[in-house]
Design a protein that fits this description.
- The protein has a single domain, classed as Rossmann fold, CATH 3.40.50.720.
- Helix 1 (about 5-15) packs across helix 6.
- The protein has helices at about 5-15, 35-40, 55-65, 90-115, 140-160, 190-205; strands at about 20-25, 45-50, 70-75, 115-125, 170-175, 210-215.
- Strands 3-4-5-6 form a four-stranded parallel sheet, with helices on both faces. The chain has a two-stranded parallel sheet with strand order 1-2.
- The protein is built from six helices and six strands; from the N terminus they run H-E-H-E-H-E-H-E-H-E-H-E.
- By secondary structure, the protein is α/β, with parallel strands linked by helices.
- Strand 3 (about 70-75), helix 4 (about 90-115) and strand 4 (about 115-125) form a beta-alpha-beta unit.
- It binds NADP nicotinamide-adenine-dinucleotide phosphate.
C-alpha cells in the first residue's frame, strides 16, 4: 500500500523479482513508476488505487478484492510535515495531515483488509526508528516522531485485541534511507535496506504477535 515511489516501489520490485504475485497501490489515476514495473511484470504486478486518508477508497478496494487471500499485507504509505518545526509551531492542518496519514490511515487499512490475509499470514506496517519513545533522547522531527509513536501504540492495541491469533504483526523500521523523504544524506541506499527488510519479514513469518523490528531484524525498544 503506497508503492508509487521510494521504499514502497522498491518492495514491489523486490517481490516481483522473487516471483510473488503483487497487488500494489498508488494514489489517484496518474501514471507512476509502479506502472513501468507492472508493464515489465505483466500478470504478476497488479495496480490498485487507494488514498489511505480516504476511507471510501479502502472499502472500494476491499470490495474489488472480493474473496482473494494474501500471505502478506504491507502498509508502506507515509508522509512527514513541511516545514519542519516543533509540534506547537505546526499548523493544525499539517499536524492533522501527518497524523491521519501515518497513524489513522494504516489502522483503517488493516481493519478493513485483514480478512484478505491468510490466518497464518503477516500484516506489516512501515513504522520508523523515530517511533521509539525510548530512543527519543535527541528530539527533532517532532510531529513525524509523534505520528509513528501513535501508530506503534495503535498497533499494540490492535495486537492486544487479536491476542491468540496466528498472524504475524510487524512494525518495521527500514533505517534512514535515501528516498524523497529520507533525503540525499541518508545513511542507507534502497539496496542496503529493502532486500534485508524482505528477508526480515520472511524470517518472522509464522511467529505470531507484534514485532517492532528494524530492517536487519533487530528488535527496536518501544
Ligand atoms: N526514507 C526513510 O529514511 C524512512 C525512514 C523511516 C521510515 N520511513 C517510512 O517508510 C515509508 C516510505 O517512505 P519513503 O522514504 O519511501 O517516502 P517517499 O519516497 O516520500 O514515498 C512515500 C510513499 O507514500 C505514498 N503516500 C503518501 N501519502 C499517501 C496516502 N495518503 N495514500 C496512499 N499513499 C500515500 C506516496 O505516494 P504518492 O506518490 O502518491 O505521494 C509514496 O508512494 C513511510 O511510511 C516513511 O515514514 C522512511
Amino acid at each position: 500500500m503506497g508503492a508509487s515511489r521510494g521504499l514502497g516501489l522498491a518492495l514491489a520490485e523486490q517481490w516481483a523479482r522473487d516471483g510473488r504475485q503483487v497487488v500494489a497501490t498508488v494514489r489517484g489515476s496518474g501514471r507512476s513508476r509502479l506502472h513501468d514495473l507492472a508493464d515489465a511484470h505483466a500478470g504478476t504486478v497488479e495496480i490498485e488505487s487507494v488514498d489511505i486518508t480516504d476511507p471510501s477508497t479502502i472499502t472500494a478496494l476491499d470490495a474489488r478484492l472480493a474473496d482473494r487471500k494474501f500471505d502478506l499485507l504491507f502498509v508502506n504509505a507515509g508522509v512527514t510535515n513541511e516545514p519542519e518545526g516543533t509540534v506547537a509551531e505546526t499548523s493544525t492542518e499539517e499536524f492533522t495531515r501527518v497524523m491521519v496519514t501515518n497513524a489513522l490511515g494504516p489502522l483503517r487499512v488493516i481493519e478493513t483488509l485483514s480478512e484478505h490475509v491468510e490466518p497464518g499470514g503477516t500484516i506489516g506496517i512501515m513504522s520508523s526508528g523515530q517511533g521509539s519513545v525510548t530512543n527519543n533522547v535527541r528530539g527533532g522531527h517532532e510531529v513525524y516522531r509523534g505520528s509513528k509513536a501513535a501508530l506503534n501504540t495503535f498497533m499494540r492495541s490492535y495486537a492486544a485485541r487479536h491476542e491468540g491469533e496466528r498472524r504475524t504483526l510487524v512494525l518495521m523500521a527500514p533505517g534512514w534511507v535515501r528516498t524523497e523523504m529520507g533525503g540525499p544524506d541518508a545513511r542507507l541506499s534502497i539496496e542496503d535496506s529493502i532486500p534485508n527488510l524482505v528477508k526480515t519479514l520472511d524470517a518472522l513469518r509464522g511467529a505470531p504477535g507484534l514485532h517492532y523490528v528494524d530492517y536487519l531484524g533487530r528488535t527496536v525498544p518501544w
